[in-house]
Fold this sequence. Notes:
By secondary structure, the protein is mostly beta strands.
Amino acid sequence: MSLRGKAKEVLFVCALALCVMxxxxxxxxVTTRVVGVVRDETNAIALPGVPVEVVETKEVAYxxxxxxxxxxxxxxxxxxxxxxxxxxxxxxxIDAAGRTLTADVGLTMAKFxxxxxxxxxxxxxxxxxxxxxxxxRRQASVITDNIGSQExxxxxxxxxxxxxxxxxxxxxxxxQYVFVRGLGERYSNTTLAGSVLPTTEPDKKVVPLDLFPxxxxxxxxxxxxxxxxxSAEFAGGLVQIVPMKLPNQPVVDFSYGLDxxxxxxxxSIPMSPLGNRDVWGYDNGAxxxxxxxxxxxxxxxxxxxxxxxxxxxxxxxxxxxxxNLWVPxxxxxxxxxxxxxxxxxxxxxxxxxxxxxxxxYKEQFLDELRGFYRISGAGTxxxxxxxxxxxxxxxxxxxxxxxxSYQFAPSQRLNIENFYTHSGRDEGRFFxxxxxxxxxxxxxxxxxxxEEGLMANAVGGEHFFQNASNSRIDWRVNYARxxxxxxxxxxxxxxxxxxxxxxxxxxxPFTYADESQSGFRMFNELKDDTVDVAANWAVFNTxxxxxxxxxxxxxxxxxxxxxxxxxxHFIPITTQKADAGNLQxxxxxxxxxxxIPSNIGTAMRFNEETRPTDAYDGEQTTASGYGMLDxxxxxxxxLIVGARVENFDQTVTxxxxxxLFLTQVQAQNKNTDVFPSVNFVQGVGxxxxxxxxxxxxVNRPEFRELAxxxxxxxxxxxxxxxxxxxxxxxxQNVDARWELxxxxxxxxxxxxxxxxFDQPIERVVIAAANPIATFQNSDNARNFGLELEAGRxxxxxxxxxxxxxxxxxxxxxxxxxxxxxxxxERPLAGQSKNLFNLAAEYFVARFSTxxxxxxxxxxxxxxxxxxxxxxxxxxxxxxxxxLSQRLKSLNIRLNVENLTNSDYxxxxxxxxxxxxxxxxxxxxxxxxxxxxxx
Length: 934
């Protein structure tokens, strides 16, 4: 069945489920569902097994393992009584008006009841709202910033990556990588529902957050201080993606939207001719390696080895089997589209189900100027390869969530969670420019398709045993697979003498260039699997009048990566390079007329050029255990202290994918470390906290950074190669924050942080005719910063929120690096000294308008080496506008993104500032409609 047919089946099943379950949901609206969480007010620990009684009806519900209770009450006013031994009894009044109410309650121990007044509030909030996220942030044990999916949608953010740039201290690079507190993407670890995720990125230690549509997640939380119940792979922050939660009431939502791009929609842009505009993001087989191709390397039989390899005729047939399409085709860009559907409900007090599907498709265009510089004899920069690069991109994304929770008893629950996201990016690229090193003008065509997928399946349970010292046990088993497939990268190169620049191609045509990246085909495939098994045991004790939680846990993560690459090359049959009189074909013809079947084997020789280092395997295990203590010394004084022990074993083997060469390059990292952590929280008044934190954490090399595999992007561009000698970096973290929560969305916070890095890992560029990027340990680095945040509502219709981050960093090079890297002292790569966000919202009745501004300062994009200056990405600002109008169950939203349309400007400076890259993304206008059945 086709993918389109499968999608129709999914929609049909959702519609059928809606028809079957809707009557029951409608009937359920006769009463009001009251939900809430009962917590210890002092240290924010959820209290399981607490009776919550409706005084008027005598109905009693007991809180579950999350401290959550659910009640059904008739319309009208009711009193809820919450009583637990050792705590001051609380009573709250609610007004049930035919809708779901959230009534969270904080209990105060009897010992502290005279000094603390707790007011329980009854509000109608979802966990993904801005208000609920601030409540979680106030009660967290560590320094945390977060953003809920409601806020993301209100800001017009389609995925988690775009949303995170609004959070204090975070910046976005390449529209998918999050930098926390000015640190590179390698310093941000990402978890999904608490489990470590594999990555689809071959060259970066990061999970690209644009893989996570906002429609599939409840919130994204960034922990900026460390606690031992989390992985010690922590530096800038831990990005925790919380998947869509089970709803408190029936949910059936649909949405549809259109996107218009100023640089692409209705404009002729270079597009890939393959795949029939891949609106689903899956290769339809147009790029697959032909079935006739052998699994062994294609090598020619020799005179003395007639039994090894293939005959000339066989190799010719393999070359003819590859599809003869090479050049992007100019077509008018289409508008983007997106749609989603969500269904979910809780059935009684035991079963909960939620499912969602989301899809998007867009076509964009990039017109870029790029230069590659060398140091000239006069001590200045000389642009040896000025290029103009035009890229047309089609990107499709599909995401699915399906979660089931079954509560056997109020204290026993089993969860099954499934998350799937997939994206396909199809590019047609053309560039033209000079290369002064060989006095040629070049013209290049490239077709590239990249599929990325992430699937995570988890089974977990939560169990509370009141008779066993109030013990809570939670466990999870998570399997995740990340895949990246790049089938059939195709590239051709044409050239002419540099003295003919500016002359018409009709009189002085470009001719086919016999270069390594011309007539080139490449197939890459990556699989990254992770098994994450964890168990935690918490004991809640009120002995001595101090709320205390002891927590212990074990965690085992097994991760493996399998990367394979195959390279093929069509080589002109000639004895003299670039001598047209010696060629068997007309080298002025376009690629589709050169690589015709009759030319393969006669005018062109087909050759496999897969290298002995074009494959690597990675194996990595992390076995860890921790213990921590969470204790309240007074009504507003909380201490969380503990340590984590991690045994880390990583092996990366670079090898010949065919086993022809026995020589292998193996890199190994093996360490056992103890990571201590202290978090101190002092309440100041009713709504303010003062926080302090200290910890030791680690940053380890990624598989790709250790592998000797090398890939050159284009002629004149840089190759990337691993370094088998990399070591782990240890990090000392000190954090402090004062925060005031004034109610609703009101917030005022100030933070300071300091980090010291021992042997930090950085990506560096070694200047040469063909520059090479690799990875190295520096000697040490330090990072200091300040964060300020304020949010306040003025009157009934106006809300402002602003945050500012200042970061100052300095890296010290090791003696062996001083002669290689150009800058002896510099900031960390990717770090902006200044970050700023501003949001202004005006709302009246069911209409709202938001104005959002984001700015980041200059940052190093690539570290220079061999006297070449660092490449600096110049700071820029971005302004977005979001208009929203709700008409009963229909919500209409208009987004205008990137109003400023600032330049993406990269420079290198020696004596004068030179342009290394320059382009614009253009403006985007989006119109979307959302409909809520309930």
